[in-house]
Sequence to fold (447 residues):
Amino acid sequence: MKFGGTSLEDEQAFQRVARIVSSNQSSNLVVIVSAMSGVTNALIKGFQRAGQGEASEALQTLERHFERHLKVISHLSATLREKMIVVIEQSRNEIIELLAHVSASRKTSSQPMDAMASHGERLSAKLLTSVLEEYGIPASYVDARLCIITNAEHGCAKPFLEETCRQTRAELQPLLKAKTVPVLGGFIGASKDGVTTTLGRGSSDYSATLISAALGAREVQIWTDVDGVMTADPDLVTSASTVSQLSYEEAAELARLGASVLHSKMIEPVVDQKIPVRILNSRAPERSGTLIWAGAEKTTQAVRAIANKTNLIRIDITSTPEFVANGFLGAIRNIFDRHYTQMEIVATSEVGISFACEEAGALSSLVQDLQQLGSVETKSRQAIISCVGDGVQSVDNSGKLLNILSEIDPALTWQNKSSHSLISMVDEDCVGPVVRQIHQGLFERGK
Ligand code: ADP
Ligand code: ASP
Ligand code: MG
Fold:
């Protein structure tokens, strides 16, 4: 069971989580948690502020969050509360030391940044362990850095699967045998030499599926603040409904294309063993949520959900028709790979190709390299809107679907470079209205 930051925002939320764990106690459970909502952002911001020489101002902005942690444990028994006060104080002291160090060196490198960011998950996991104990649930905090072993790419470390599997089993199986619930922070790991790493923003979901795969879990449950994966981002479309089932391919595609309820890498670890993943609402645990599994029912609806991804840049590259027809795409892919930048093709023509990629730091050197292949134009503040579903795959469906989509908005052009999605690019400011319009056309007709 993984509980996201939105399910751990305050004392009541921790109680809700404890009740959910308690009602599933008969299963052999492992609990993975994110930091309390807003804490990772605050830690990263504080770290950056300290890098400008403002360590005490940075600490000031974090005090509110230490208070939030203290409030969570305010009604625990005296012994547990005292133990947790010490834990929070220890973490605060380590953070003060980190801030002072960064402030003195004025260097915000990614290694101490990971050490800083790791405190959110380490604290919430320790706090939840004590809340579970208060509920009479035998629980034990496990340092995730002993389980998830990664390379040293700080900020987006990649797990070594064999080591992670071996370590996870060694740390967790004895506890499970003893009917004790291990509680771990997601998001964090350690390199082979024991230095703290993080797996990328929002990656507690990924930690949960990695650990589940290592243990051969029967099921993964991702508990969040919405009823499951919805037909569109519920922040944009209030009428979005819960998707009851998704195949692994659909879920992975939605995650990749921006449905932030799922982390982009979380599906990968569970596919081989066909471990089902359930997305559930911690505020309404009785609802059935979304089941992601190998047996997802085929529907007549070609599109299961609409995803959107913002903060992108569009890159248009034009060259000669001969080059575009021969080797152009391969050369472009090599350049993106060399710059560790993921891209989506959003339009193609005889004389060029257009891509979308994230507005990352090293973009100018990527563009410089691309200029060797043709003339390059860029446009920022762009977004991708995607229609995702296994039904998109069939040519028949796709033709029909493209007609429907062009009726909904004739101005949009669609690309189907993957068999599970159609994607289109729009200005970031148009995302809300366009997604609502497509949602209405695909899911609300006749309602
Ligand atoms: P957690 O803290 O539980 O990891 P996240 O904020 O990462 O929660 O993910 C849940 C949020 O994802 C929802 O509150 C919603 O705003 C957003 N979201 C975006 N697209 C979708 C979608 N298709 N279905 C459900 N939620 C979505
Ligand atoms: N706390 C981390 C983040 O905010 C990881 C997560 O929430 O999954 O990115
Ligand atoms: Mg999340």
In short: Residues 305-443 form a domain with the VC0802-like fold (CATH 3.30.2130.10).
